[in-house]
Amino acid sequence: MKIGLVGFAGSGKTTVFNAMTGLDVPVGFGGELRLGTVKVPDARIDHLSGVFAPRKTTYAEMRFCDIPGEHGADKKGLSPRALQQIRDQEALCLVLRDFENPALAESADPAGDLDAFAAECAFADLEIVERRLDRARKEGADPVEITAFEKALVALESERPLRLLTEDELDRGFFKGYGLLTDRPLLVVLNRAEERAADGVPETMAERLTRQGAGGLALSARVESEIADLEPEDQAAFLDDLGIEESALARFIRAAYALLDLISFFTVGPDEVRAWTIRRGTRARAAAGRIHTDLERGFIRAEVIPYATFVAHGSETAVKEAGLLQVEGKDYVVSDGDILHVRFNV
Ligand SMILES: Nc1nc2c(ncn2[C@@H]2O[C@H](COP(=O)(O)OP(=O)(O)OP(=O)(O)O)[C@@H](O)[C@H]2O)c(=O)[nH]1
Ligand SMILES: [Mg+2]
Predict the structure, then answer these.
(1) CATH of region 2-42+60-107+184-259
(2) 127 has pLDDT over 80
(3) Superfamily of domain 281-344
(4) What integer is the mean pLDDT of 194-223?
(5) What is the CA(225)–ligand 2 centre distance, in A?
(6) CA of 97 to the centre of ligand 1 (A)
């Protein structure tokens, strides 16, 4: 999954990027677009890897894209270039500044920044939707398509981001390729000063996030990027000292998985133990396609062991002997933590 870090100049995007990826990109000035990949920590993979001792262990991955803010503009905003870069992302992480940045004249106003960001995105979407609607009406396009764009227009005009509309309310088939920003899943990071690193998201902010259909978490990117530089054995102690229960990366990934409704399934064996990310509700055959298109094409059946069953019995043989191996067809809905063996024939 590809997540774009967005936000106004100096909100701490690059610092968040460093904290997540463990990289050491210079902070404090715009710079270039950067990409970084992180392994999704998963204790279940650690355990399976211990049991199978495979040649290779592969965690799920999350890709971050650090999008530089617009500097030197007379008002806070997103440049056309930034807007284009934001359109390329599967999900957005909006970094809100909730610390005093000596390089910026204005003091922190995370709620105001959230509103400003939402307004910019809504405005950019309105422009696209209006233009398309005009043309569609002139061309006498499919009335179903016109209705879809009209609904989008009404939502945007009443300050409802498109992501709030259900599949029944909005026929998204027509919106592919338009890159509408308010339809992108949105995760908001409230970037805090060090002293408040352990404080949660305040109630008023949580309400605002609900109105945007966004997920949210609070952290101090500076603290977390310092932690990311430590040896793994020192990280836990440092977090503990600050009263932080879990690293930002772990919290971020959990929030992102929940927001995007993502789950993991596993493949195991002497060659490789590996995690795969899918949307909740994905069926066995489509899940097999994540591994390889041949497995989807030639899908026969999936042999499934839920992770908890595997742990309770200790080995695949023991699970089989207990009669607990599930043999499932193409329409089986894969659950989080399923261990899958796909039988196929091409
Ligand atoms: N006190 C404090 N300072 C922070 C925190 N996060 C970032 N900063 C500082 O804020 C400044 C800007 O941080 P960056 O990460 O470069 O911000 P950015 O959003 O990437 O900025 P642009 O890419 O230029 O838009 C740097 O001096 C950081 O050290 C934080 O959690 N607490
Ligand atoms: Mg930056």
Answers:
(1) 3.40.50.300
(2) yes
(3) Beta-grasp domain (3.10.20.30)
(4) 93
(5) 14
(6) 8
Ligand 1 close to Cβ of residue 101 (< 6 A): yes
Looking at residue 205, what is its pLDDT? 96
The three-state DSSP-derived secondary structure of the chain is: CEEEEECCCCCCHHHHHHHHHCCCCCCCCCCCCEEEEEECCCHHHHHHHHHHCCCEEECCEEEEEECCCCCCCCCCCCCHHHHHHHHCCCEEEEEEEECCCCCCCCCCCHHHHHHHHHHHHHHHHHHHHHHHHHHHHHHCCCHHHHHHHHHHHHHHHCCCCHHHCCCCCCCHHHHCCCCCHHHCCEEEEEEECHHHCCCCCCHHHHHHHHHHCCEEEEECHHHHHHHHCCCHHHHHHHHHHCCCCCCHHHHHHHHHHHHHCEEEEEECCCCEEEEEEEECCCEHHHHHHHHCHHHHHCEEEEEEEEHHHHHHHCCHHHHHHCCCCEEECCCCECCCCEEEEEEECC
Residue 27 CA, closest ligand 1 atom number: 16
Ligand 2 (single-atom ion) residues, CB below 5 Å: 13-14, 68
- The pLDDT of residue 292: 95
198-221: average pLDDT: 94
Structure confidence at residue 73 as a pLDDT band (50, 70, 90)? low
